[in-house]
Design brief:
It is built from 12 helices and 25 strands. The strands form 5 sheets. Strands 13, 14, 15, 16, 17, 18, 19, 20 and 25 form a 9-stranded antiparallel β-sheet that branches. The longest helix has 13 residues. It is elongated.
Length: 480
């Protein structure tokens, strides 16, 4: 699945150092774990592979106890080591246990349901050898969770990591033209998914390893990503390194009723986001009351000791595209209300970051302050887009009276024709009379004949139609 040009690169294996591969598992499916181990052993030059460290995070499946130990001893001698944790620690602390036991020059963290490909390791090792502050991830391919088939994607295109203000990881577009021009060069990524990456062992601990006070799983990938960039490191994805990963609908960890992702991300936000933390709390108001429950003093001290840059610097210098901030570069923001019906544009609590498009609806307007993110919050951007974080209001290409929330245009879109068409369907004008009009189609948003939960529609514009009047909650530098 990798670019053909990758095969032409010659590596001086003797000069790359060696690696400790660290794999955490808890009640992993036997076949998935064994597939991961064998792929590493079979597809890694022997001189590079110092050890594989399996950390058993308190599994209770019988086959993962003595049978696994016997299997490993029989097939791999001392190459594969198993560390058994006496109680459930969670992914973050389990990885720290493995890292502290590791002897390799480089630590390489893998999930326990992967398959590495031929030539996967050498590119990662070379980038770290060139600069120990480089941290590098492979391109992650999909292994079907239905039939375990390795699914190859576009060998010349992949996405990089981003984030949304609620503290979740997302994938964002890269410039395909640039990727094709330099098919074997590393690509800067603002964040990483977190499951698969390589880092110099000494540098990992020098920069603060993981935050040990984080619980179970979640948020550690963004925390490490922000810390790397803000504190002098660099984070890349290498197009010549591909690893398949089984993406599943369930999680092996039991969270015991705790929002570990939320609390971990709260720690991240308080330490690294500076004044931008208010955008996190806009989405996670529930976590504001939890601040007193956590102590981040040691991580703030780490940040001072490492002389790290600001989060503003990160957004302005690292983030691949200008990061959406709901009250910046806007004409207006907040709820979007039709005063005649008291209906507001509403996404009906749909998970936007997981979908490419969804129908937009109307619902009875909620009386909420501007510092509380709801299903009815939108920004009217200076460029004419009406958007939430991961989507823009779009006229349906196939049913032009219907309005969707779809992915916003990206300067890095790898489909330029589709990008231009989307731009026409997503660019709006807010008139002085209150209409919201799509200039290309000359259609206006309306609430005529609509009730709560109905799909938002557009009709032919009529400046005398009161159902076509919309007002945002707050206007910025404009008179309407």
């Amino acid at each position: 699945p990798r670019p053909l040009e990758c095969a032409q690169i010659n590596y001086n294996i003797d000069d790359l150092g060696n690696v400790s591969v660290i794999i955490i598992f808890t009640n992993e499916i036997w076949s998935a774990l064994i597939r991961t181990i064998w792929s590493v052993v079979n597809r890694t030059p022997k001189s590079l592979l110092k050890e594989i460290i399996l950390v058993d995070d308190f599994s209770d499946k019988f086959e993962l106890s003595e049978p696994l130990q016997e299997y490993v001893d029989h097939h791999f001698d001392d190459l594969v080591k198993i560390i058994r944790l006496p109680k459930r620690e969670g992914l973050i602390r389990a990885r720290l246990v493995g890292a502290r036991q590791a002897k390799g020059d480089v630590l390489l963290f893998l999930d326990s349901h992967c398959e590495v490909t031929v030539g996967w390791l050498e590119p990662l090792m070379k980038v770290i050898k060139e600069d120990r502050t480089n941290v590098v991830c492979p391109v992650i391919d999909i292994i079907s969770d239905q039939d375990l088939e390795y699914v190859s994607g576009n060998r010349y295109y992949f996405q990089v990591g981003g984030f949304i203000w609620s503290g979740h990881f997302i994938w964002i577009d890269t410039d395909e033209k640039s990727l094709r021009k330099n098919p074997t060069s590393v690509v800067k990524t603002p964040t990483m998914a977190g499951g698969l990456f390589a880092i110099n062992r000494e540098y990992f601990f020098q920069i603060g390893a993981y935050d040990e006070q984080m619980e179970i799983w979640g948020g550690e990938n963004l925390e490490l990503s922000f810390r790397l960039w803000q504190c002098g490191g660099k984070l890349y994805i290498h197009p010549c390194s591909h690893v398949g990963h089984i993406f599943r609908d369930y999680h092996p960890y039991s969270f015991l009723g705790k929002d570990s992702h939320g609390m971990n991300t709260l720690r991240t936000a308080l330490v690294w986001m500076d004044e931008y933390v208010r955008y996190f709390f806009l989405h996670r108001k529930d976590l504001k009351s939890k601040i007193h429950e956590i102590d981040v003093a040691s991580r703030i001290e780490l940040r001072k000791r490492l002389n790290c840059k600001s989060f503003r610097w990160y957004l302005e210098n690292v983030y691949t595209e200008k990061k959406y901030i709901y009250d910046q570069d806007v004409v207006a923001y907040g709820t979007v209300r039709n005063p005649i019906t008291n209906l507001c544009i509403d996404n009906l609590n749909k998970a936007e970051e997981q979908k490419h498009e969804m129908g937009m609806c109307v619902y009875e307007c909620m009386d909420v302050p501007l510092d509380e993110w709801t299903n009815q919050m939108f920004s009217f951007m200076k460029n004419g887009y009406i958007r939430r974080e991961e989507g823009c209001l779009t006229i349906d290409e196939y049913a032009t009276h219907r309005v969707l929330l779809t992915k916003c245009p990206s300067k890095n879109s790898n489909k330029k024709r589709k990008h231009l068409l989307l731009k026409k369907m997503q660019t709006w004008i807010h008139t002085k009379g209150g209409q919201i009009r799509n200039e290309h189609y000359n259609l206006c948003l309306t609430t005529e004949s609509l009730k709560s939960s109905d799909n938002l529609r557009v009709v032919e514009c009529n400046q005398d139609d009161l159902y076509q009047i919309w007002w945002f909650q707050k206007y910025v530098d404009i008179e309407l």
